[in-house]
Design a protein that fits this description.
Blueprint: H1 2-36, H2 42-54, H3 63-76, E1 85-87, E2 94-98, H4 100-103, H5 109-120, H6 128-145, H7 152-165, H8 175-181, E3 185-189, H9 190-196
Antiparallel strand pairs: 1-2, 2-3
Helix pairs in contact: 1-6, 3-5
């Protein structure tokens, strides 16, 4: 009986330690986001973590459309102030590849398009239960450890409302984030990114 209790306590302690490590990684990712992008709003933090779970949030099959849209974005956008390659979320399953990497010849347009499409197909967005729990943890950590993010309460209410309609909903960057940082990127799975980008 005593051995059984010790075993249960050991398992509980291991699970708690694992949870604390995950929460520390989440905290670090939030801190990095706010340090790099101090104008971030809550929906930008949401987008960062969401993309690390779900990539774009849906599978993409129309290569020609994706290629056309990227070429149009390259023509119409200015140089971005976001890094050429940036890990996202706390697991770093995915990275954002700035389209300036195409503009400066670091990567071919077709290679980026195929990497983006392949990455989007790796995720099953139907697994919403874990995302709901993760987002609740992120909110708690922000409320506990960070000075107020501008418009936090209003954005929290808006995001909660949208998640009630669709528990794994993708979101755009906030208007202030778009205006301040001019982000133009494609989300690529980390291992795929390592294979297609120069060291």
């Amino acid at each position: 009986m005593t051995k059984k209790i010790i075993c249960i306590l050991f398992v509980a302690l291991a699970l708690l330690t694992c949870k604390n490590k995950d929460e520390q990684k989440i905290e670090n990712a939030i801190r990095e986001q706010l340090a790099k992008y101090p104008e971030s709003r809550l929906q930008d933090i949401y987008k960062n973590f969401y993309q690390d779970c779900f990539s774009t949030g849906h599978a993409i099959s129309d290569t020609a459309m994706v290629m056309s849209y990227l070429r149009q974005e390259l023509r119409e956008s200015q140089l971005s102030s976001v890094p050429l390659v940036e890990p996202i979320g706390w697991r770093h399953r995915f990275v954002r590849v700035n389209i300036d990497a195409v503009r400066n010849g670091m990567i071919d347009t077709a290679v980026l398009v195929h990497a983006f499409i392949r990455s989007a197909s790796l995720v099953n967005p139907s697994d919403t239960a874990n995302w709901e729990k993760e987002w609740a943890t992120i909110i708690k950590i922000i409320e506990k450890n960070h000075s107020p993010i501008k418009d936090f309460q209003a954005d929290k209410i808006m995001i909660d409302s949208l998640l009630r309609e669709n528990p794994n909903r993708a979101m755009h960057h906030s208007r202030i984030f778009d205006t301040t940082y001019n982000p133009h990127y494609r989300v690529v799975e980390s291992e795929i990114a390592k294979k297609i980008l120069p060291n």
